[in-house]
């Protein structure tokens, strides 16, 4: 009985932790996903590389963007083409 209570308590604490982390990732991705080609799956790569705002991504050079894991030349070309229309 005592062990069951400890396990249940631990489960609730872990669920809280994961829920909070998920919310933080969602909040920080909301800004970046306004850029075409950046979704919830790859926004963390941009954030961890120091690109936390759409402006920081837009002002980055092609070489800087290509150094981000998961970013290829097709993304950079699409980004530049999209920005050219604005």
TrEMBL record:
InterPro entries in the cross-refs: DNA_repair_Rad51/TF_NusA_a-hlx
Superkingdom field: Bacteria
Name recorded for this polypeptide: Helix-hairpin-helix domain-containing protein
A GO term, aspect molecular function: nucleotide binding
Naturally occurring in which organism (per UniProt): Prochlorococcus marinus XMU1408
Organism classification: Bacteria, Bacillati, Cyanobacteriota, Cyanophyceae, Synechococcales
């Amino acid at each position: 009985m005592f062990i069951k209570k400890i396990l249940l308590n631990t489960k609730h604490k872990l669920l809280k932790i994961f829920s909070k982390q998920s919310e933080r990732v969602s909040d920080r991705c909301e800004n970046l996903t306004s850029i075409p080609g950046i979704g919830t799956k790859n926004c963390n790569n941009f954030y961890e590389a120091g690109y936390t705002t759409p402006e920081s991504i837009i002002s980055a050079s092609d070489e800087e963007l290509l150094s981000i894991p998961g970013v290829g030349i097709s993304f950079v070309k699409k980004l530049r083409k999209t920005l050219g229309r604005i």
